[in-house]
Amino acid sequence: MKNTCRSIPVSVKLRIGVDDDEDFGFICEIVRRLHEAGCDKFYVHARKVLLKGLNPAENRIIPPLNYPIVYRLCEEFPQCDFWINGGISGLKAAKAIVYGDDEQEKVHSNDTPVIHSVPCEVCNYPNGSCIAPPTKAKVPTNLRGCMLGRAAMDHPSLFWDCDRYFYGECENPCRTRRDVLNQYIEYLEEVYPRRCCDDVDEITNRIPSPNVVHTKDFCSICSDWRKGRAKKSKKSTHEPNGQLPIANRMLDKMGSDIDGDSEPKNRKKKKKAKITTHVIRRALRPVLGIFNGLSTNKAFRRKCEDLTQDLSIRHCGPAFILVTAMQIVPDGFIDAEFIRTEDIPASNIIEHVSPLECPC
């Protein structure tokens, strides 16, 4: 591995066991061999994997978690860096794991230390999992962080407070879902450019996208929004951040030709796809769950998918599709301020991603 990769750093993601091979010596031997081969960064999913009887989804939740074994790996291999993964519900749990949590000392009685093991009666977690974080004095120096995979996909709003709460910044860059989506729209415009006004036949089916030169600044469908962006129109209650005032102005135009030319009534021109649905779905996936837990969640997801399938609007790019889908979300949801992490009731993730229902 060293000779093949040379100066390129190598990392490995692994589990703590396979089927009946789950003792500490087993995982130590794997890490030792990988380290000797040139790997010094390990992302450890703190569950074993059962190759028979469980599918991938079940293997993510049924085998018990064992955080203490990852802490032991950190002590056993001080020359390596470790990240812990598996069952981390949000920022509170992540911070406790990475920075330590002295609250765990409260479970001790009569000055007798409680031993956490699997199955763990102290943690009282499903399937006997042990998710005890280390105390602040015993956090391994080479435990560099943690991974939250499913939480990021299913509840992206969990991470709005990451800069302030987890990394210690003075404030976060966004306070509402509209702030997040508007910044993501700017990113989409740069990375996934529109294809509604170019003469290039090459299809956008992967990233990086083809280099195209637009023959016009906008088409008849996205003209209102792009004119507003170009003029940097003033924000208002009904037209925040230069977005379209109402969805109907856009939706009424979706039946027109991309180039704005009228079609003969007796002949319908077949449009050629320049952006694949795969690219649009990939572009929108990071924010599809931003309204998770709110009553508008399903409608927003459905609107994104409907617009993705609509060839007439798809060429205007994923940024414009997102702008259009946002129009169906009530302002009370999209403009509600997020809840600070420390103000969330214990073990209540839904409150984190779902403010009180708005009266609209």
TrEMBL record:
<dbReference type="InterPro" id="IPR013785">
    <property type="entry name" value="Aldolase_TIM"/>
</dbReference>
<keyword id="KW-0694">RNA-binding</keyword>
<feature type="region of interest" description="Disordered">
    <location>
        <begin position="230"/>
        <end position="272"/>
    </location>
</feature>
<feature type="domain" description="DUS-like FMN-binding">
    <location>
        <begin position="7"/>
        <end position="97"/>
    </location>
</feature>
<dbReference type="GO" id="GO:0017150">
    <property type="term" value="F:tRNA dihydrouridine synthase activity"/>
</dbReference>
<keyword id="KW-0820">tRNA-binding</keyword>
<protein>
    <recommendedName>
        <fullName>DUS-like FMN-binding domain-containing protein</fullName>
    </recommendedName>
</protein>
<dbReference type="Pfam" id="PF01207">
    <property type="entry name" value="Dus"/>
</dbReference>
<keyword id="KW-0521">NADP</keyword>
<dbReference type="GO" id="GO:0000049">
    <property type="term" value="F:tRNA binding"/>
</dbReference>
<dbReference type="InterPro" id="IPR004653">
    <property type="entry name" value="DusA"/>
</dbReference>
<dbReference type="InterPro" id="IPR035587">
    <property type="entry name" value="DUS-like_FMN-bd"/>
</dbReference>
